[in-house]
Amino acid sequence: MRQESKPLREGSKLDRGSILAAAFEVLDAEGFDGLSLRLVAERLRVQTPALYWHVENKASLINLMAATISEMANRDKDRARGWRNKLLALSRALRRTMLLHRDSARLSLAASPVEDPRVIAERIAAPLVEGGLSHRQALSYCASVIAYTVGWVAYEQSQPMHKFLAQMIDFPESFETGLRALVGGLTNPPAVAARNVKSSPGP
Amino acid sequence: MRQESKPLREGSKLDRGSILAAAFEVLDAEGFDGLSLRLVAERLRVQTPALYWHVENKASLINLMAATISEMANRDKDRARGWRNKLLALSRALRRTMLLHRDSARLSLAASPVEDPRVIAERIAAPLVEGGLSHRQALSYCASVIAYTVGWVAYEQSQPMHKFLAQMIDFPESFETGLRALVGGLTNPPAVAARNVKSSPGP
DNA sequence: ACCTGAACACCGTTCAAGT
DNA sequence: ACCTGAACACCGTTCAAGT
């Protein structure tokens, strides 16, 4: 009946996936500052250096975790029409996904992209270009919306901030108010080019 | 002429101020992940435990650094009139100040407030209430604007993001576009109470 | 009051060695 | 191919001891 301190590891194989799962468990339990390869390895009943066969180093693991979150957010967002609704959906999905794991905003801001940034930018901008924005506009607006969302969640996940702010403002409501203000305030043709609206070829 | 490896410390006394200054130097040189008490102590020609007489621990030092940044931002902002202009000034001053030090956004998001949050909230909300907002509105709008600003600067300071995004978008311009959209989109009387606009006492 | 020296527990990472 | 054991450099923190 004693099943502790033995390397049985309940039949689970060690690979990137199981390491990622264990890493998220440690993150939720200890927070971003307490996330260590040693605790991840312990949870997998493995010696720490074993992780290095499947993952380059701790920074790379963090990058993979952040990429996992971005993927999840990307999965449930689309289905909205028009670039404004797409931006709203992107932000809400991102916040929803991030709130699934403790300190995910700080983790994301500590990570660097695993894919080629050009590919990421293309995938994220394409649906907005389709919705009537220029390429530059799409990237610029995305940057603003993502910055707002990640910044907001970072404060929402900060223990001392949350503890106090929660009794002063309603987090979901204030988030929505700010988000709608931001997206609603973004203009379709950029304000700079507002003069040459006379002769654009019909779609 | 040899003036290295000697504990002369050029007449500077060790106190909170000098520790803070040295900590910012280390932050700028090594980044947030490389910020350590040992490097701070080394720069002050002092043994690491000496720092603990003036500062409770590393977390406390980070809190003090973040508070220093907030203070600086608070100093040069005001002078604008109307709550919208005050929010714009707050955001721009915050970004300007943060860009003075490497990784300051991530540092701020890792910190907890040193002052009583009630006092902070009061100081930050008061000028906006004076500008015509309710207390709750003021806090909510501030939260959105600060989240946007810190989130934006976090990405702006992230090396890999910057390296790629810098050639796709203009950082200051996109920041301004998003900021004006956000602040411009916030309504004076909340959208919920948009029905009782008929009889407000003149200013 | 203020700082040093030595120590402790924890960390990321490397590498020879096992299987 | 995949993992262990042992080691290294670095870290935050504590504490007796010096002045």
Written as H for each helix and E for each strand, in order along the chain, the element string of chain A is HHHHHHHHH
**Name of the level-1 CATH class of the largest domain in chain A:** Mainly Alpha
The major beta sheet of chain A can be summarized as: none
Termini separation of chain A (Å)? 72 Å
Structural class of chain A: mainly alpha
CATH architecture descriptor text of the largest domain in chain A: Orthogonal Bundle
Task: Give the quaternary arrangement of the chains.
Answer: homodimer
CATH superfamily of the largest domain in chain A: Tetracycline Repressor, domain 2
Tell how many strands the DSSP assignment of chain A holds.
0
CATH topology of the largest domain in chain A: Tetracycline Repressor, domain 2
Measured by residues with Cβ under 8 Å of the partner chain's Cβ, the largest interface is: A-B, 48 and 48 residues
Shape of chain A: globular
- Radius of gyration of chain A (Å): 21 Å
Number of helices of chain A: 9
Instruction: Provide the number of structural domains of chain A.
Output: 2
Percentage of β-strand residues of chain A: under 5%
Estimated helix fraction of chain A: 55-70%
Contiguous runs where pLDDT drops below 50 for at least 5 residues of chain A: 1-9, 191-203
What does this structure look like?
Two copies of one chain form a homodimer. Chain A has 203 residues and is mainly α. Chain A has two domains: 40 residues, Homeodomain-like (Arc Repressor Mutant, subunit A), CATH 1.10.10.60; 119 residues, Tetracycline Repressor, domain 2. Helices cover 61% and strands 0% of the residues of chain A. The first copy, chain A, contains nine helices and no strands. In chain A, α7 runs antiparallel to α9. The longest helix of chain A is centred in the last third of the chain and has 23 residues. The N terminus and C terminus of chain A are likely disordered. The interface between A and B is large, with 48 and 48 residues. The first copy, chain A, binds a DNA duplex (19 and 19 nucleotides) through loops.
